[in-house]
Amino acid sequence: MKRVFIFSLFFLSLLSWLPAETPDYNFGNGTILLDETSDSKHYVKRKCELEVTVGDMLSENKRDIYSDYNGGKKIGSVKDNDKLQIFSVLVMEDFSAPFNRWGEPRGEIWYEVQKDEIRGWICRQNDDTSTDPYKDNRYEILERIQSSGKTWTVRALNENISVWERVNVRDKPGLDGKKIFLLNESLKSGVSQLTLTKTAITEETETIDGITDHWIKVEYESGKFGWIFAGYASNERGGPKHSIPEEKIKFYFGWH
Fold it and tell me: How far apart are the C-alpha atoms of 238 and 256, rounded to whole Å?
């Protein structure tokens, strides 16, 4: 009996050290390539392959290319309208430094880039990790839903969205989804803004009334969720309408 008890404690202890479930990015952008902690610093490197055009959103003091993200030397720089190929993004959280005013660790965000024959790293953000394009595993695959004769790939995306008109909430993405609620039902005239929390988005888009956009999952009442066509919603914060990592990165490097 004592041996069984000791083995049970060992097994439970072993479980506590097992890594958390790896987020699903289907081996595409967002896939974790490195996840390690060294000297009170946590490094997460993710696959991120896309091309960006440099614009005024990339400040002048962030345009140098370094040979490495950890003490490398300057090997080049970029200017407006340069085309950059991005290969990966690395976020470093420094737990030895005081947390910021939001209670989050300070750190740096580096992008692995290539300009012409120069391949190295650009530090897009230092002392702050809030602009991590994959923060909290943004845009990981949550599920796939069959509706309207197609398969919708549902990805995580948590942010606010505004609705200014009457919009149907459905039980699944696509016009075949059953109507379960009507937002702004009492709206008859004038302007009425309803701010909702978006919890997921379809990777695929659809064109309705000449508008091409994604379907988004929203919390329309406390604890109740459904799908609306994002073409009828908007945002007020500037930048990309949806915080899809690739769009955010193009914005970070591009033109205001």
Answer: 9
Q: Is the pLDDT of residue 14 over 50?
A: no
- Write the secondary structure of 71-99 as one string of H (helix), E (strand) and C (coil): CCCEEEECCCCCEEEEEEEEEEEECCCCC
Q: pLDDT tens for residues 201-213?
A: 999 999 999 999 9
Contact 92, 107 (CB under 8 A): yes
Neighbours of 104 (CB within 10 A): 13
pTM comes to 0.86
Q: How many CB atoms lie within 10 A of CB 97?
A: 13
Cα-based distances in Å from 177 to 107, 152, 173, 185, 206:
43, 12, 6, 19, 14
Strand order, beta sheet including 106-115 = 32-38, 41-53, 83-94, 106-115, 118-126, 64-66, 74-77
In the numeric block, the tokens 């897009």 are attached to 124
For residue 82, is it left (φ>0), alpha (ψ between -120 and 50) or beta?
beta
Pair of tokens at residue 251:
């914005």
